[in-house]
Amino acid sequence: MGNDVSATLQDIxxxxxxxxxxLDGSIDIADISQLxxxxxxxxxxxxIHKEFLKLQALEASAKGTNIFRAxxxxxxxxxxxxxxxxxxxxxAKAMVGH
Length: 98
Fold this sequence. Notes:
The protein is α+β, with helices and mostly antiparallel strands. The chain contains two helices and four strands, in the order αβββαβ. It has a four-stranded mixed sheet with strand order 3-2-1-4. Strand 2 (33-42) and strand 3 form a beta hairpin. The protein is globular, with a radius of gyration of 14 Å. The N and C termini lie far apart (39 Å).
C-alpha cells in the first residue's frame, strides 16, 4: 500500500504545473528532531492536491543545513525543485537558517 501511495504522489508531482512546500519541525518523545513536509500542487486544470509528503528524523539537530539536507533528500525522491514556487515555514530560527 505504501508503494502505491508513493507512486501516486510521485505521479501527481510529476504532472503538476507548480508545487509549494510547508515545513514544520517537532521533537519526539525520544528528544529527536523531526521534519514534517507537506506538498500542495496545482495542475493545468487548476486542480489542487494537498498531501503529507514525508516525516524525517534530522541527523544531528534542527539547524538550517540539516533541514536542507533532509528536504533535498525528500524532494529528490519525487523530482526536483524546478516546479517549486514557495516554501513556507513557521519562521523559527532553524527553519530560516539561523
